[in-house]
Specification:
The complex is a heterodimer of chains A (236) and B (291).
Chain A (H helix, E strand, L loop, with lengths): L15 H35 L2 H16 L2 H22 L9 H27 L2 H9 L4 H31 L11 H12 L2 H30 L7
Helix pairs in contact in A: 1-2, 1-4, 1-6, 1-7, 2-4, 3-4, 4-6, 5-6, 6-8, 7-8
Chain B lengths: L1 H27 L3 H8 L2 H20 L4 H4 L1 H35 L2 H16 L2 H15 L4 H5 L3 H4 L2 H27 L2 H9 L4 H31 L11 H12 L3 H32 L2
The chains are: A mainly alpha (236), B mainly alpha (291).
Chain lengths: 236, 291
């Protein structure tokens, strides 16, 4: 049995181009979901630490929910009601039917999942900042947002980087779950190529190499970021 | 190479977890009465009432008649999910111990493949690994006559074999990395003391090194088991009728969109809750006995 390497060629008889397009889609979703998750995480952490009792409880419900239910289930739970709700709102506003862009849907769904984890990472990092620094800032009359930008953010960052790096590694792999709802990212593209040529083994190994490349390159970049940020770390 | 970069991450996180554990212990210290009062703050009562009203609305206005019809299938699915989780955790941990040991203390010839295995498992999505095994290996096996005639063949035609295999390898990969750190973190002096008492290496491993490393890994282990539970529904994509698979089938049969999903979410919330409580109980028992 020989290996048909020519199936991986970039030009049409080969399927290489489809896989590379899959990588591009995967990275797009990963970056989008990561940034969205980061925004939710910052908001969530602030809500958990400085919000009123109701906000605090609601954020706690959100993070518990996201951490306790499988991502695959969350994707379905957010995707179907979400797109239906959009259609409903669209119909109410007079549009005939809103087509939910699958890329945007993927980003939103994974972003909400990431947000739950990011909230915990950010909360831990803010907690690691000596409380006296934050109190001093508040005592000088800094509003919370200004204190966040000038005091909390710079001194929490070194504490947050390991957790945030971890989240990035998780989100690049979680994008594969969107294959289950049929989104054409790398894993789905691989399965299509495998199904068409019956060379499943070759294509899944090739996709594995691509994912591994993404994670190894990310590791190098993360290591550089960590090294740059270590000198500012006050607490050992 | 990659592992050297990943390592500090794991250890910094482990260090960062400590204060929160202490805080959690302090929070739990007040007696039951105080905790009960915590639940009856005015805003909590309002939130609980809203939540109760939502649940009541769901129960009353949505269709739940399918529950009794499919209760057998659901129980079987629940059992399959729990069984897959337990089996893959136990087998995966048994694999993780040699993987961690090889990386922490093994010769280069053993350490390098172990490190490579962990990097590959941790660097690629579980869904891809599962599909590689099921579609990739699954399509190669029938071409090999020796396998078709072996006693394994009936198992190799079933989806759950590949599901269990993929879940086990995945758990071993993640936990092997944790065990590497745990083995490396046991103080040298304890191992030297064991040797000074004349223990042979295997005895020292069994009596000193492995138990100490296990207790060090225990807090992370609990989190990993929860993550493993959340990975189990992936096996539904290779025809295993676990909880997720059964619900998928119910959705196809009944054309209901939301009800089965809500019920599925509820079941996973319960499973996670039970798991968290169980892990906490085990940790409390062992933290007084072990470390």
């Amino acid at each position: 049995m020989s290996i048909h390497w020519e199936l991986l060629a970039l030009t049409p008889p080969g399927w290489g181009w489809l896989l590379l397009k899959g990588v591009a889609a995967t990275l797009q979703i990963a970056v989008g979901a990561y940034l969205l998750g980061l925004l939710i995480g910052i908001g969530g952490a602030l809500g958990k630490l400085y919000g009123g009792p109701v906000t605090r409880d609601l954020v706690a419900c959100y993070t518990t929910f996201v951490r306790a239910v499988p991502e695959l289930v969350l994707i379905l739970v957010i995707y179907f009601p979400g797109s239906n709700l959009l259609n409903y709102i669209g119909a109410a506003m007079g549009f005939s039917s809103v087509n939910v862009d699958p890329l945007a849907a993927g980003i939103v769904v994974l972003g909400i999942v990431q947000g739950g984890f990011a909230t915990e990472v950010m909360r831990g990092a803010i907690n690691a900042v000596p409380s006296g620094e934050i109190e001093a800032a508040r005592a000088f009359g800094m509003p919370l947002l200004l204190a966040l930008r000038r005091i909390i953010w710079p001194s929490m960052l070194p504490h947050a980087i390991p957790g945030l790096a971890n989240l990035w590694m998780i989100v690049t792999k979680d994008t594969a779950l969107l294959a289950v709802v049929g989104f054409p990212e790398l894993t789905m593209a691989t399965r299509q190529a495998g199904g068409a040529t019956k060379a499943y083994f070759l294509f899944f190994c090739a996709a594995g190499v691509l994912y591994l490349t993404v994670s190894l390159v990310s590791n190098r970049i993360i290591a550089v970021i960590e090294r740059r940020n270590r000198p500012g770390m006050s607490v050992a | 190479m990659a592992m050297e970069i990943l390592t500090p991450t794991v250890e910094i996180q482990a260090a960062a977890e400590k204060p929160s554990q202490i805080a959690a212990a302090e929070r739990e210290a007040p007696d039951l009465q105080w905790r009960l009062r915590d639940w009856f703050q005015p805003h909590r009562i309002v939130l609980l009432l809203i939540a109760f009203a939502l649940v009541a609305a769901m129960v009353l206005t949505m269709r739940w008649d399918w529950l009794s019809k499919y209760s057998g299938a659901l129980t079987l699915g629940l059992w399959r999910t729990v069984w897959l989780l337990l089996a893959s955790v136990v087998l995966g941990f048994l694999l993780a111990v040699p993987l961690g040991l090889a990386q922490a203390a093994g010769p280069w010839l053993l350490a390098a493949p172990a490190r490579g295995f962990c990097t590959v498992i941790r660097g690629t999505p579980l869904l891809l690994q599962l599909w590689l095994l099921y579609y990739g290996l699954g399509s190669l096996f029938p071409m090999i006559p020796e396998i078709r005639e072996s006693f394994l063949w009936p198992y190799l035609r079933e989806g759950w074999t590949y599901g269990l295999f993929a879940l086990t390898l995945s758990f071993a990969g993640y936990e092997g990395e944790v065990m590497r750190g745990a083995f490396a973190g046991v103080p040298r002096g304890e191992l030297e003391a064991a040797r000074a008492y004349g223990m042979r290496p295997l005895t020292a491993l069994r009596r000193i090194w492995l138990p100490r490393a296990f207790f060090r890994a225990l807090p992370t282990l609990g989190g990993e088991v929860l993550l493993q539970l959340k990975s189990t529904p992936l096996v539904a994509t290779v025809t295993v009728l676990d909880l997720y698979g059964v619900i998928g089938r119910i959705r196809q049969d009944t054309y209901l969109t939301y009800e089965p999903l809500l019920f599925l979410t509820f079941l996973y919330l319960c499973l996670s809750g039970i798991l968290v409580v169980a892990v906490r109980m085990i940790e409390r028992r062992f933290s007084s006995a072990g470390a």
